[in-house]
Amino acid sequence: MDPIILVIAFIMTLAFLAFGIGSVTLERFRIIGTLVLVFLSIGFLFNATALLVMILFFPNSLLSTNGLIMFSSFTIMLVDTVWAWSRYLKNGIDSRVSLALVRYTKIAFFVWVINYLWGIVLLIWI
Question: Which of 15-29, 32-46, 53-67 has the lowest mean pLDDT?
């Protein structure tokens, strides 16, 4: 297996862990706290880094199934992170979040987990 693919998989795993901690914390406490913002942002940055590494080392991979999965995961995380930051900037730290944001975060995390697992399966089989 290509070492760059292993690096991408490792970075995506870090993104998975960080985004998971941020998502579960947001769902559990239903407030925009420092922990939520930090972990959602770190998860997004790890995901963006993995996508950038994939684009730099495998430029044709964006048109592949794995590239589309990574880009859709990136978009989902971007929307969720921007929405959480906008709620923070509007209402301040430790403010209650809307039910819509909690629902979107649940759905986004579920879809992201499916994308993550499917991407790992593609990396193993290809």
Answer: 53-67
- Check: pTM over 0.85? Answer yes or no: yes
Give the Cα separation of 114 and 99 in Å (integer). 23
Summarize pLDDT for 19-39 with one digit per residue, the tens.
Answer: 999 999 999 999 999 999 999
Q: For residues 96 and 63, what is the distance between their CA atoms, to the nearest angstrom?
A: 40
Structure tokens at 92: 């301040």
Closest CA to 26 of 15, 38, 14: 38
User: Taking the CB of residue 20, how many other CB atoms lie within 10 A of it?
Assistant: 16
Token digits of residue 104 = 């979107």
